[in-house]
């Protein structure tokens, strides 16, 4: 994907999950702060819940904890 063609408002469904795809517990704080400068907490949660990207359950749980929302998982065990 050519990131230069992405639009912050039109492509948030792509940008949000991809920004957190490679995050780890060690880099989560920095990564989520970058997203928060662009998108609301509600949007971040919404697009993480809807994505087909392989976002780890650990990342989903970190996001849920940060925003005090009910924990959610991308993959059931």
UniProtKB/TrEMBL annotation:
Highest taxon of source: Bacteria
Protein name: Uncharacterized protein
